[in-house]
Amino acid sequence: MKKSIFVVLMFLTTYSMAGSVSIALAANVADAMVELKKEFALVQPDTKLNVTLGSSGKLTAQIKNGAPYELFLSADMNFPEALYKEGIAVTRPVVYAQGALAYLGKTPQDFTKGMALVKDDAIAKIAVANPKTAPYGRAALEAMKKAGVYDAVKGKLVFAESISQTVVYAVTAADIGFIAKSSLYSPTMSQYKEGTHWAEVDPSLYAPINQGIVLLKAGEQNKEAKALYDFILSTKGKEILKKFGYLVP
């Protein structure tokens, strides 16, 4: 009897030592995170990564309201900088990747027209992420305004909650959508070809999308959270992010 109790206690102790990390993740990084998790498991096989996807603004609101996330990968620097100023993030925001904006149609489009394409009568609905909460949505509106097409197309805009939802809209309900270029590196998007279904938006039309990472107060004492933070910023982490179309510092 005593031996069985000892075995149970040993099992519970071992189980409790298995670490976990709660991650708030900007939706544009979802596909890259799949591979980041896979590679991180090779060095930290007993660590469970719990990922919550969303727009950076909504995730920030959750964090401010006490959501116990330990690591935050934002789609911009503004949200993590705000958390750092308020003492909710314990590391100064660092750029882990620079994103790029693309526009995608579910049917072939004439991208030689550049941004003027969205003014075509055949383009009735344009999917854009909510600019209040999604940095890629802000970048899309900025690009349209700088290109001089915004006033002509603002009535066509359909707003999605996050950049991942924008991708769904772009290939279903909308005629074209402004998305994160990284989304196009997912195997599920292989049918969409550059120059036929999508093109990169001229980066001179919008401010650089510097994406920031911070360790949050909830994860300050979590060695696994710090290990993941370091891995994402490591050479291996950067190699993976490059594969998904990001520029890395």
Q: What does this 3D model show about the protein?
A:
The chain is of the alpha/beta class and 249 residues long. It folds into two domains: 2-98 and 208-243, 3-Layer(aba) Sandwich (D-Maltodextrin-Binding Protein, domain 2), CATH 3.40.190.10; 100-205, Periplasmic binding protein-like II (D-Maltodextrin-Binding Protein, domain 2, 3-Layer(aba) Sandwich), CATH 3.40.190.10. Helix content is 36%, strand content 20%. It has helices spanning 2-17, 30-43, 56-64, 78-85, 135-146, 150-153, 163-170, 223-232, 235-243; strands at residues 20-26, 48-54, 71-73, 94-99, 101-104, 126-129, 157-160, 176-180, 198-200, 209-215. The strands form two sheets. It has a five-stranded mixed beta sheet with strand order 2-1-3-10-4, with helices on both faces. α2 (30-43) links the parallel β1 and β2. α2 (30-43) runs antiparallel to α9. The longest helix is centred in the N-terminal third of the chain and has 16 residues, at 2-17. 43% of the residues are buried.
The CATH class of the largest domain turns out to be: Alpha Beta
- Please provide the count of β strands: 10
The domain tally reads 2
- Overall shape: globular
Average per-residue pLDDT, rounded, comes to 92
Per the CATH scheme, the topology name of the largest domain is D-Maltodextrin-Binding Protein, domain 2
Low-confidence stretches at least 5 residues in length (pLDDT < 50)? 1-17
Biggest β-sheet strands, sense, barrel: 5 strands, mixed
Strand content: 15-25%
Return Rg in Å. 20 Å
CATH architecture of the largest domain: 3-Layer(aba) Sandwich
| CATH homologous superfamily annotation of the largest domain | Periplasmic binding protein-like II
Residues in helix, %: 25-40%
